[in-house]
Design brief:
This protein has eleven helices and 15 strands. The chain has 327 residues and is an alpha/beta fold. The strands form two sheets. It has a nine-stranded mixed β-sheet. A six-stranded parallel β-sheet has the order 3-2-1-4-5-6, sandwiched between helices. The structure holds nicotinamide-adenine-dinucleotide. Nicotinamide-adenine-dinucleotide (NAD) binds next to α1.
Length: 327
């Protein structure tokens, strides 16, 4: 089997995570190029992963890249995905794929037109516990899902761009989006969104105008409800992502994508503990590689990146206007 030639655009924190995942899948792919703005940093990064450094995307695409992993901060998306897919390159794009729907739709449409495999980095969906829940729903074991609650709590200043709402979109758009994506995936497409946000803990930190307290209610015509919240004022150095799902015959308490307690609630309650060690970044990349080989859509297409972005942007609009938004 010919190994896929992978290029990485954006050599920061998550870029390193993807480069490591490519290394784990070394029998089917190799990282051949890394591209970033800062020449010395890119050189150092590329040397660490045995790849060639680039500061121009065009030159990296010209070196016969099969798959481009886009790990840029959201504000830096200015047409690179469109450029890559027009060159016939498959793409895996980190969330949030953009900060507005015009840009998001432009990427999705360009990828569809080019006929390439285009995936979004919602890697939570590859976790063992998430997959077990999905299988239970598919098999009719769980029944209808009625309630999804979830949180994303942390306490860190993160990168400079992250603190700026205009560059990151804010905590709801940049972080809570993962949990919103799970809600959308497991509860369904909401009809309404209501949200409140505030910069409560960091208003005195220079350059920090992002929300650090937020809550979203997702509404459905038939009564289903999703309730999500985020804060960047919780325990320093800890990222706590928790969610719970209540369905007719089953509940799930998730402490991560790989760990959950599922309870079968009909008759005498019976619990099932899920605790596995799936590397979701590797699983996500393996799925993209299989999609390329098998000429099929990836498990999480780029259009899902746009679909979930639409919800968090509506939440931001709701908070700004103080009203519920109909989608
Ligand atoms: N899936 C996840 O759980 C997860 C986790 C962290 C970050 N992310 C996402 O990954 C993306 C990057 O986040 P990060 O934490 O790696 O950020 P980072 O600040 O650590 O790295 C970003 C890199 O992109 C580079 N860059 C910025 N603008 C550029 C441009 N125009 N051209 C080329 N390079 C440019 C920067 O120099 C930096 O090296 C964000 O969208 C973030 O939301 C996802």
């Amino acid at each position: 089997m010919k190994r896929l030639r992978v290029g990485l655009l954006g050599c920061g924190g998550i870029g390193a995570r993807h480069a490591t995942a490519v290394g784990v899948l070394k029998d089917e792919m190799q990282l051949v190029g890394c591209c970033g703005r800062n020449e010395s940093k890119v050189r150092e990064f590329a040397a660490r992963f045995g790849a060639e450094p680039f500061t121009e995307l065009r030159r990296m695409l010209d070196s016969q890249i099969d798959l481009l992993i886009v790990a840029l901060p959201p504000f830096a998306h200015t047409g690179q995905v469109e450029q890559a897919v027009a060159a016939g390159t498959h793409v895996l794009v980190e969330k949030p794929i953009a900060l507005d729907m015009t840009r998001a739709r432009s990427m999705v449409d360009a990828a569809a037109k080019a006929g390439v495999v285009a995936a979004c980095g919602f890697m939570y969906r590859f976790g063992a516990a998430v997959k077990r829940w999905d299988a239970a729903v598919k098999a009719g074991e769980a029944g209808r899902v009625g309630l999804f609650t979830g949180q994303f709590h942390c306490n860190a200043l993160h990168a400079d761009w992250w603190r700026e709402r205009a560059k990151s979109g804010g905590q709801m758009v940049e972080q809570l989006i993962h949990i919103v994506d799970l809600a959308r995936h497991q509860l369904g497409e909401p009809q309404t969104v209501y949200a409140r946000t505030a910069n409560f803990f960091h208003r005195d930190v220079a350059g920090y105008d992002s929300d650090d307290v937020s809550a979203i209610v997702l509404g459905y015509a038939d009564g289903r409800v999703g309730v999500l919240n985020a804060t960047n004022g919780a325990v320093p150095g800890q990222w706590t992502k928790l969610w719970q799902i209540v369905a007719e015959r089953m509940t799930g308490r998730f402490t991560g994508w790989n760990t959950a307690t599922l309870t079968h609630t009909i008759g005498a309650p019976r619990t099932e503990e899920i605790d596995e060690q799936i590397d979701v970044f590797v699983a996500q990349l393996a799925d993209v590689a299989a999609a390329i080989r098998e000429r099929r859509p990836p498990a999480v297409p780029l259009s899902e990146g746009a679909g979930t972005l639409r919800i968090v942007l509506a939440a931001r609009q709701s908070a700004a206007e103080g009203r519920e938004i109909s989608l």
